[in-house]
Design a protein that fits this description.
By secondary structure, this protein is mostly helical. It contains 6 helices and 2 strands; from the N terminus they run E-E-H-H-H-H-H-H. The protein is elongated, with a radius of gyration of 17 Å.
């Protein structure tokens, strides 16, 4: 993952090294890396949600209605992911999920 900082592009590892050396603060690191991770997570969740909606459209009307709660909850998860303040470790864990919305919903 590449992140822009002070008109230069860095990897997450390079920024982490700068943080460890005291060149940037933990807050700056979290803002830079965390924001990029959040964007990736939200994009991933939105794609999964779009795929879910495509699958719904192929189902009978009755089943779509039965899945309306799941649909609303998954949309709420996307909103929460977009606007919540998660720790870097939490974001890393979410990025590694293959079916993020399904896992959140089923948990």
């Amino acid at each position: 993952m590449e992140i822009e900082f002070n008109n230069k592009t860095y990897t997450e590892e390079e920024l982490e090294e700068k943080m460890k050396k005291g060149i940037i603060s933990l807050e700056e690191y979290d803002d830079l890396v965390g924001d990029k991770m959040r964007d990736i997570i939200v994009d991933k969740a939105r794609k999964e949600y779009a795929d879910y909606k495509k699958e719904l459209l192929e189902l009978p009307k009755e089943l779509i209605i039965e899945k309306s709660y799941e649909t609303a909850v998954k949309q709420e998860f996307i909103d929460e992911l977009e606007f919540s303040d998660l720790y870097i470790d939490e974001k890393k864990a979410l990025m590694n999920r293959d079916h993020l919305l399904d896992e959140l919903y089923n948990d």
